Structure formats: C-alpha cells, structure tokens
C-alpha cells in the first residue's frame, strides 16, 4: 500500500533551487466509502486508525517507521503496559509530520485489556482517539 503522502498531485510540486520538492498532502480516499475523498483533519484521523491497527515490523509493505508494537506487551502487569503503551502511541503517531503532539492520556483496565484514550493534536486541529491492548 502506498502511504497517503504519495497521492500528491502534480500541481502540489514546487521548484526549489533547481530541485523538485513534493509537498505532503492530506487528501486520501474515505476508508468508509472508498467513493469519495477526505482531507486535512479527517485524513489524519484515518491515518491514526491505520497506524494504531498495524503491528509494526509485521508487514514488509510498510517501512519500519510505520505502525505500533503491542503484541509483546502481553504478559506484563497493567501498570507497565499503560506506561509503555503511552510511549509507543506517541512514538508511532508523531512519525506523521501532520501530528504535532499526543496528550491527555486516560487508561481504563477491564479484565485483561487496557483501553487508552488520548487527544491527537495536528496542524489541522485536534481530535480524540483510542487504542485497546490485550495484556494478560
């Protein structure tokens, strides 16, 4: 799968000191319908869902920077999982240059699952997101 940033159109390329630069765009297909496009904050929101649902290093089609590692958290106590999950979410999401910060984490532990909710700050505004991880 080609990352969203490669769907830039030709008019978004600029000439800079004799070299072409590709400006990153947020325009991408709406994953709910695949018949229309989304842009800016909604496109970043979709990217967050994709990143947080892709196990890092598992799929060779993605670079080593894409996705999040969660499977190795299984078997650790919930306090460690919460701290490590926060760090890993921030690391995974801030690779995307459109995301400026991830904050306001809240964790809920039910049975053998940690539910993390947090706020994603982007160049287009902010939105809430979540991730759940099985830990025991």
Fold and architecture overview:
By secondary structure, the chain is of the alpha+beta class. The chain has one domain (4-134): Nuclear Transport Factor 2, Chain: A. The strands form 3 sheets. Strands 5-6-7 form a 3-stranded antiparallel β-sheet, with helices on one face. It has a two-stranded antiparallel ribbon with strand order 1-2. A two-stranded antiparallel ribbon has the order 3-4. The chain has helices at 40-52, 78-93, and strands at residues 13-16, 19-22, 28-29, 37-38, 99-110, 113-122, 125-134. Helix content is 21%, strand content 32%. It starts with 12 loop residues before the first strand and ends with a strand.
Write the layout of secondary structure elements.
Elements: E1 13-16, E2 19-22, E3 28-29, E4 37-38, H1 40-52, H2 78-93, E5 99-110, E6 113-122, E7 125-134
The topology string of helices and strands comes to EEEEHHEEE
> Class by helix and strand content?
alpha+beta
Query: How many strand elements?
Result: 7
Strand portion: 25-35%
Helix content: 10-25%
Q: Which structural traits does this protein have?
A:
alpha+beta; 3-stranded antiparallel sheet; 32% strand; Nuclear Transport Factor 2, Chain: A; 136 residues; disordered N terminus
Brief write-up:
With 136 residues, the chain is of the alpha+beta class.
